[in-house]
Amino acid sequence: MLYNVTYGNLNNYKQNIFLISLAYPAIQVNAKTKTKRKIFQEEQKMEKPEFDVLLPTFRDVCYPITDFGAVCDTRTNNQEAFRKAIEKCNADGGGKVVVPSGVWYTGPIELLSNVNLHLQKGAIIFFSNDPKDYPLINTSFEGLFMYRCISPIYGKDLENIAITGDGIINGNGRRWRPVKKWKISEVSWKETVAEGGIVDEGPKETIWWPSEITLEANNTLIPNPELYKDKETCEKYHDFLRPVLLNLTRCNKVLLDGPTFQNSPAWGIHPWLCTNLTIRNISVRNPWFAQNADGIDIDSCKYVEISNSTFDVGDDAICIKSGKNEDGRKLGVPSEYISVRNCVVYHGHGGFVAGSEMSGGLKNIYVNDCTFIGTDIGLRFKSCLGRGGVVEKIYINNINMISIHNEAITFNMGYNMDTKEGQEVAPEEIPEFKNIYIDNINCTKAGNPITVSGLPEMPIHDVHVSNFTCKTKGKIKIENAENIFQTNINLIEPEY
Question: What domains can be seen in the chain, in order of their start residue?
Answer without folding.
Answer: 1-47+316-496 (2.160.20.10), 55-174+242-295 (2.160.20.10), 180-209 (no CATH)
